[in-house]
Amino acid sequence: MENSKMKVRTIHTGNFKLDGGAMFGVVPKQLWNKLNPADSNNLCNWAMRCLLIQTEDRNILIDTGIGDKQSESFFSHYDLNGPQSLLSSLKSEGLEPEDITDVLLTHLHFDHCGGAVTNKNGVMVPTFTNARYYVHKTQWDSAMDPNPREKASFLRENFEPLYDAGKIIFLEQGDTIANVIEVHVFYGHTHGMIAPLICFPDGKKLFYGADLFPSSAHLKPHFVMAYDIEPLKTMSERARINEIAARENWWYFYEHDLITEISQVALNEKGQSYPINGSSLFEIFI
Ligand SMILES: [Zn+2]
After folding, report:
1. What tens digit of pLDDT does each residue of 205-264 get?
2. How far does the centroid of ligand 1 lie from the alpha carbon of residue 59, in Å?
3. Rounded distance from Cα 66 to ligand 1 centre (Å)
């Protein structure tokens, strides 16, 4: 896996708020509140941080944030905040929507794929008109025929127009994109979530954890979101990845961590993982 001219950049799409208890499942508030202080409504603030990967001839975007199509009352539940948006962040990298060649949607929950489709004069159209959009088939099927637990997270207007426009490509475990991105597939948070591994010419590896590791706090084994449909599977998927990541010095990119953008991972004597060398993407991947 190699590409001589390669650049990665964080694409901030703004922050949103979610209930702290929902984000940490069975973990008591006394423990998680030290790491992610909640406001008076028990809400914690979370980033929606996407990633841009540029090779010689491709501009690849991973995830698209929450977008702006839904009603004011829908967005009011999530207290959107922060100065940046998907398109303003791309613009500050010198890119217009039509410059994006590939969009990888890790999964189809609204905070990851909302920006993929735009409401243009009442018609839902792909935001990135020249891009292929990638998703896992199992995830697609879950989104189109959702179980009652996840139903509220899948909003058809965020992804169905991509299919209607003939833009969707289904990826499988082990597939690659542009020779630099490896596809890894997970089933604990939602069925068929892709967490891509980006491989650099100098040997560095950056793992876009999506909602397998939404923040650095979620490296702790029991810090599993209440949203996850199969929490035990999340725990075993994390343990398997952590073991490889610690051995091979991977960097993790945290989509929802407000502060820590990337870190590496270490294992203690009990085999439990914790973050080390927390940093910004730019400092490590110039
Ligand atoms: Zn999420």
Report:
1. 999 999 999 999 999 989 999 999 999 999 999 999 999 999 999 999 999 999 999 999
2. 23
3. 9
State the DSSP string of 243-278.
HHHHHHTPEEE-SS-SS--EEEEEE-TTS-EEEEEE
Averaged over 118-138, what is the pLDDT? Answer: 98
Could you tell me the distance, in angstroms and rounded to a whole number, from the CA of residue 227 to the centre of ligand 1?
Answer: 9
Question: 7-284 falls under which CATH superfamily?
Answer: Ribonuclease Z/Hydroxyacylglutathione hydrolase-like (3.60.15.10)
Q: How far is the CA of 111 from the centre of ligand 1 (A)?
A: 5
Distance 5 CA to ligand 1 centre (A): 30
Residue 1: is its pLDDT beyond 80?
no
Task: Delimit the domains of the chain by residue range.
Answer: 7-284
Residue 16 confidence (pLDDT) above 60: yes
Q: According to the model, what pLDDT value does residue 151 have?
A: 96
Cα separation of 271 and 266, whole Å? Answer: 9
Distance CA 173, CA 65 (A): 23
